[in-house]
UniProtKB/TrEMBL annotation:
Entries under InterPro entries matching the protein: Aldolase_TIM, DUS-like_FMN-bd, tRNA_hU_synthase_CS
Taxonomic classification: Eukaryota, Viridiplantae, Streptophyta, Embryophyta, Tracheophyta
GO MF, any single term: tRNA dihydrouridine synthase activity
UniProt-annotated stretches for the region Disordered: 1-30
Ranges of biased composition (kind: Pro residues): 1-10
Keyword list, A-Z: Flavoprotein, FMN, Oxidoreductase, tRNA processing
Keyword Cell membrane: no
Keyword tRNA processing: yes
Cofactor(s) the protein needs: FMN
Biased composition (Low complexity): 14-30
Name listed for the protein in its UniProt record: (rape) hypothetical protein
Matches recorded under SUPFAM superfamilies: FMN-linked oxidoreductases (SSF51395)
Pfam family for this entry, one: Dus
Residues in DUS-like FMN-binding domain copies: 52-337
Length: 374
């Protein structure tokens, strides 16, 4: 059942860190103790390495659960606006839903005021494993709102946001950043976050100006340098098209896990080894017995169980059925013309595409039978 967090939660001790940790705030703890606690928490969560990245309007509960079914081991919520979250009950109820299966979970906020951020964070801390600060959004709306990657121009404010949460929450604080053009600036930034109380750092290996992931490759070398410079767990983000890329990134950078965004939007089964045709051209890949139409149906069933705004559903259907719509553009036009969506219409859309033929499968590496010993 979908859970809308209570405005004044009274969590049990099972949901919190130990009472001793609550009393000893990070400012009074040595760096060694804080690092030790950061790793203990990460290990308690099972050291997830396949992680759903935060995506505005796209990493909501039903999609997180779908990715979890197909190999994701942790997930971020979409970025939530801390001020709106504290002020508007409707926004809280629509934009943040969860359930007991939805763990490990990072709840991500954008913010530029420490007190407002803390108020928002306290509302969600009983329902998550990290409260995450978005320090990487490069979009114009973030520039206008003075948050995300544009706080890279005001590092004292960033430090105050991290310290405020680290000293007052009962769950760890994580941060997601982009890199500076200069490597040393990036390393200084990451070390500052660690010293301020960040318990886990996710690094998107592109700069604030490198918005187009297809045009700019993520800099795994910079991520490796951050990993080697820090003592807390580090995650990587960028250049992941398939599950093998995750394993290669971990080998090259030494990070603990890898986030994926765009690849999962098109193919939520990527972490289970499935590939779209674009990335299955090498020898050994065969029809995996699953297609994006099947995934849309699974997603819609999860949305019926855990309601979310229709704009999110529309976006996911567009992404997941993109290959099919290119084969049957008239069906895409019919979908776009539908101002008011219903589940009946969307299930019928998938049926219509399948009846028209031209199924677009997801591919998986053929299993090679190992000869049995005599």
């Amino acid at each position: 059942m979908t859970q809308n967090p209570d405005p004044n939660p009274d969590p049990s001790q099972d949901d919190l860190l130990s009472s001793e940790q609550q009393q000893q705030q990070p400012e009074s703890l040595s760096i060694d103790t804080r690092v030790e606690q950061a790793w203990a928490h990460w290990k308690k969560l099972g050291k997830p390495k396949y992680i759903v990245a935060p995506m505005v309007d796209n990493s909501e509960l039903p999609f997180r659960l779908l990715c979890q079914k197909y190999g994701a081991q942790a997930a971020y919520t979409p970025m939530l606006h801390s001020r709106v979250f504290t002020e508007t009950e409707k926004y809280r109820n629509q934009e943040f839903t969860t359930c007991k299966e939805d763990r490990p979970l990072f709840v991500q906020f954008c913010a530029n005021d420490p007190d407002t951020l803390l108020e928002a964070a306290k509302r969600v801390q009983p329902y998550c494993d990290y409260v995450d600060i978005n320090l990487g959004c490069p979009q114009r709306i973030a520039k206008r709102g003075n948050y995300g990657a544009f706080l890279m121009d005001n590092l004292p404010l960033v430090k105050s946001l991290v310290k405020k949460l680290a000293q007052n929450l009962t769950v760890p604080v994580s941060c997601k950043i982009r890199i500076f053009p200069n490597l040393q600036d990036t390393l200084n930034y990451a070390k500052m976050l660690e010293e301020a109380g960040c318990s886990l750092l996710a690094v998107h290996g592109r700069t604030r100006d490198e918005k187009d992931g297809k045009k700019f490759r993520a800099d795994w070398g910079a991520i490796k340098e951050v990993r080697e410079a820090l003592r807390i767990p580090v995650l990587a983000n960028g250049n992941v098209r398939c599950v093998e890329d995750v394993d290669e990134c971990i080998r090259e950078t030494g990070v603990e896990g890898v986030l994926s965004a765009e690849t999962l939007l098109e193919n939520p089964a990527a972490f289970a080894g499935f590939r779209t045709a674009e990335w299955a051209k090498e020898e050994g890949y065969v029809d995996g017995g699953l297609d994006q139409g099947d995934l849309v149906v699974e997603y819609l069933k999860l949305c019926e169980k855990h309601p979310v705004p229709w704009r999110m559903i529309r976006s996911h259907v567009h992404k997941m059925l993109g290959d099919w719509f290119r084969v049957h553009p008239q069906v895409r036009e019919e979908f776009n013309a539908q101002n008011i969506l219903t589940f009946e219409f969307l299930y019928g859309l998938v049926d219509q595409l399948k009846e028209l033929g031209g199924r677009v499968p997801l591919y998986k590496k053929r299993k090679i039978d190992t000869p049995q010993s005599p």
